[in-house]
Amino acid sequence: MEQANAVPLQSSRAERRASFQAQRVRAWILFLLPALVVYIAFMAWPLLNSLRLSFFTGSGYTPDHFVGFDNYRTLFTEPYYRDRFFNALGNTFVFFAIHMLVQNTLGLLFATLLATGLRGHNTYRTIIFIPATLAVLVTGFLWRLILNPQWGAINFGLKAVGLGAWARPWLGDPQVVLIVISLVSSWQWVGLPTMMLLAGLLAIPDELLEAARIDGASAWHVFWRIKIPLLAPVIGIVSILTFVGNFNAFDVVFAMTGPRGDPKYAADLIASFFYRTAIAGEHPVARPDMGLGAAVATCTFFILLAGVSLWLVFNRRNAEA
Are residues 27 and 168 in the same domain? Predict the structure, then answer.
């Protein structure tokens, strides 16, 4: 009799458990559905449509003539597009390298200083982050005034301290214009890695740092042997965001040198090359071609995908080690 009653009881519990699991799955689906719809509508579909457009050509913003891989052949073999593309790609990598070297290194330095709780750290934190709140076009225009070769503050200051030989047309010299624009961009956005790295430093347990000091570790050893390894995930995220952001950088070049990255395309980035190829054209050399621009965007996507994938593989190997 007791066994007969136990079987329905166990069956009832199993049914309730199954019903609860089903309700939980439905709740998760309803919870994720709005985000999934937004992602598909504003990210996945535009990406797939861009890949599709790279196989078409035609006038306007909706190319309708299928040409297969002709856009890629044009991009990599015709002298004008080939030279402009690889020039812009090389400049973009230099742009990224300067940001990594200057922006993120300064961000780590500022974050380390702010984490020590130095006097007035809240004020310094605000000062460092303020440039990131400014519009890039406004920043570019202001720096064009500062870098003006005739009456700009930079050349005036150099002449005032006896370094007039260093004065030059900073945005008119092909050898330095890309470096100057990269430094201006690094100055504006240094606040973002600073805040992210500062949050990572503040999350390190004080007990761990105190134990290292009790064991006789110097401040330098604490920084390199404890803080940097624990900051590695944050540093990786900052590096990836810098990589992706720099390959989409357009406004700073447009504001400071125009859409061609003058002089002589010395500051031309992959995003400004895409703008001229797909939207603006470059009269009388080339007309706007959205299909060819989509090919440029597709190549950029695969470069970003390769870079992010390499970081994920490297990060996973470090986590498993």
Answer: no
In terms of residue numbers, what domain contains 291? 78-320
- 60 part of a folded domain: no
User: ∠ CA(245), CA(104), CA(185), 5° rounding?
Assistant: 55
pLDDT digits (tens, 9 = 90+) for 160-206: 998 888 999 999 999 999 999 999 999 999 999 999 999 999 999 88
Distance of alpha carbon 286 from alpha carbon 289, whole angstroms: 9
- The answer on 284 and 165 residing in a single domain is yes
- Number of independent structural domains in the chain: 2
What is the end-to-end Cα distance of the chain in Å, rounded? 58
Q: What is the pTM of this model?
A: 0.88
**Cβ atoms 258, 111 nearer than 8 A:** no
Dihedral sign for Cα atoms in the order 142, 143, 144, 147: positive
Q: Give residue-wise pLDDT tens across range 25-68.
A: 888 888 888 888 998 988 889 889 989 999 998 776 778 889 98
Encoded amino acid at 263, one letter: P
